[in-house]
Specification:
Helix content: over 70%
Distance between the termini: 11 Å
Oligomer: single chain
Structural class: mainly alpha
Radius of gyration: 13 Å
Strand content: under 5%
Shape: elongated
Number of helices: 2
Number of strands: 0
């Protein structure tokens, strides 16, 4: 996986986790949901990138 894309996707997942945790701690359901959604997007992009890398080899 390209280093830059991998780091970007991992950062998106981590950022989503922080938002989810903050939302839980403050009782903000909207922020919690946004965090979960961001994590899912980051994980999905990582999966796609891994599949592309597998097909290249």
């Amino acid at each position: 996986m390209a280093g830059g894309k991998k780091a970007k996707n991992m950062a998106k997942t981590a950022k989503g986790k922080v938002k989810e945790t903050t939302g839980k701690a403050t009782g903000n359901e909207s922020l919690e949901a946004k965090g979960r959604a961001e994590q899912i997007k980051g994980d999905a992009k990582q999966t796609v990138q891994k599949a592309k890398d597998t097909l290249k080899h």
